[in-house]
Amino acid sequence: MSIYNDIERVLVSQDEIAAICERLGKQITADYQGKERPILLGLLKGCVPFMSDLSKHIDLPIEIEYMDVSSYHGNITSSGDVKIRKDMNTSVMDRDILIAEDIVDTGKTLDTIVKLLRHRGAKSVEVVTLLDKPAGRVIPFTPKYIGTVVPKEFVVGYGLDYNELYRNIPYVGVLKPEIYKK
Ligand code: PRP
Ligand code: MN
Ligand code: MG
Fold first, then answer.
1. Per the domain annotation, does 179 fall within a domain?
2. Which CATH number do you get for residue 61?
3. DSSP symbol at 19
4. Tens-place pLDDT, residues 93-127
5. Residue 94 annotated in active site
6. How many separate domains does the chain show?
7. What is the reported pTM?
8. Does 128 reside within a domain?
9. Who's near 72: CB < 8 A, 6+ residues apart?
10. Can you give the residue range of the structural domain that contains 74?
11. In a domain, 167, yes or no
12. CA distance 130 to 120
């Protein structure tokens, strides 16, 4: 039994992910020059591998925070009900916030969290996402920093799960449909 048997094909390879992290890290380093302790805010759990690798390419005095947010609850479609399971530990008032995400699909998660952080008085709120799935959008949302665009297929790996599995695969792949249809 191997978890890799459940993957139909590789969509974003380990080499491609490494190149994306380097490119986005450099861009963020340039854009956030001179800002006072920006906060890189990861949305758990999907953000973990991407945020870890991306942050090593950001050469700035940043703070790292996490918020545990969920809307899929183990399903393949978004419930649209974005739940904050654990909030961040610091005030965002007058702070520059860069949210790190694994994927923007319907846009509901980021629409909810960006509005919340603005409401809480953040000075700026931007988003860096490894994957963008524009064909999945239900609410208009445009992330500032995008790793790569993916088609409307169910993707897993590198933080992305199906029913809490496959997050530990080191690349992004398409899950065999028979896995979620059974
Ligand atoms: C997934 C993914 C994003 C969000 C994107 O999280 O990690 O956070 O959904 O989808 P959306 O644009 O349709 O809102 P999920 O709710 O599955 O929680 P997880 O990160 O703990 O897996
Ligand atoms: Mn998530
Ligand atoms: Mg999930």
1. no
2. 3.40.50.2020
3. H
4. 999 999 999 999 999 999 999 999 999 999 999 99
5. no
6. 1
7. 0.96
8. yes
9. 78, 79
10. 13-150
11. no
12. 26
